[in-house]
Amino acid sequence: NKNYRIAVLPGDGTGPEVIREALKALNAVAEKEAFKVEEVHYDLGGERYLRTGEILPESVLEELRTFDAILLGAIGHPDVKPGILEKGLLLELRFQLDQYINLRPVILYPGVDTPLKDKGPEDINFVVVRENTEGLYAGSGGILRKGTLHEVAVQESINTRMGVERCLRFAFDYCRRRNQRKKLTLCGKTNVLTYAFDLWQRVFNLIAEEYTDITTDYAHVDATCMWMVKNPEWFDVIVTDNMFGDIITDLGAMIQGGMGIAAGGNINPEGVSMFEPIGGSAPKYTGKNIINPMAAIGAAQMMLEHLGEGSAAGRMEAAIRKVVVEDLKSLSAGHMGYSTSEVGDLVADYISKSA
Ligand code: IPM
Ligand code: MN
């Protein structure tokens, strides 16, 4: 029997509440599938930072490198200046663990409300492959003459051949494995960001020659936003840089029913990957037991898929689908018809009773 060592980082705000439910579902599925999950919890996040000044101690980072995967709740605390925890913890983990892919499915389940009228589950079913270690997130740049009227703020987008290529290769492979419409769209801005996306486009075209079974396409990022709203059925897999991927996946989350269901994986195919609901710490809902844990449960499901537990992932997906479709009144916090923990119970019960 397999034994998976999972580092659990509940984090800030509603993170701990949703992670508790994800673990409930994970343990229910582990029991069914006869593998073991060993959880090691870490209290990284805003509270610890405010208490001790520590964000991500070197020793903790070294421990994290030894796990099979990481399950993360949310990072961001109202009493901590924006950027400190995001850069010091979330982005630091992505960079240090070289999780160079951020995989974000945009899937509308039947019966879920989408703001797109006349669009249904058959139209909204695609995956965004977001580069996760470079671009504008690399932290390159600086401020000159700070505080003066002549101040200059420079924020550079770093795009390396290696970083772009490994992201594109992942996207082509993923598109092939996903085996749906086998269409890969590069999302960029070749008409303005002529250095960065010239590199992306050239490497994309080069790799495409190796994947003759994949149909390739290109869309500017602004047009991508437009098509995501107007014709989401156009997309199968979208590959893009870090910043554009960040932006279009919030739009993606909204068309799939909201932050309550949007999950993502920070993937290092050769290392330790980290799975998280993409919605953030939602301070205003903290401690109320009303936040939707489905995104965190979906993150756990992606983690199972990543670990190669396909049958367990399938079981979990069926449970998510059933509860979303049949039980929940809405996916929004406070309007689900159930509390956070009740939603977790519904999912776990369904898993436990499944054949
Ligand atoms: C996300 C978040 C993060 C990002 C923030 C919190 C740094 O918005 O995971 O999409 O920009 O990547
Ligand atoms: Mn984001």
From TrEMBL:
InterPro entries registered for this protein in UniProt: ICDH/IPMDH, IsoCit/isopropylmalate_DH_CS, IsoPropMal-DH-like_dom
Cofactor: Mg(2+); Mn(2+)
Isopropylmalate dehydrogenase-like domain residues: 5-347
MF annotations from Gene Ontology: magnesium ion binding; NAD binding; oxidoreductase activity, acting on the CH-OH group of donors, NAD or NADP as acceptor
Transmembrane is among the record's keywords: no
Coiled coil: none
Signal sequence segment: none
Keyword ATP-binding: no
Protein keywords: Manganese, Metal-binding, NAD, Oxidoreductase
PANTHER family: D-MALATE DEHYDROGENASE [DECARBOXYLATING]
NCBIfam families per the UniProt record, alphabetical: PRK03437.1
Protein name: 3-isopropylmalate dehydrogenase
Species: Desulforhabdus amnigena
Organismal lineage: Bacteria, Pseudomonadati, Thermodesulfobacteriota, Syntrophobacteria, Syntrophobacterales
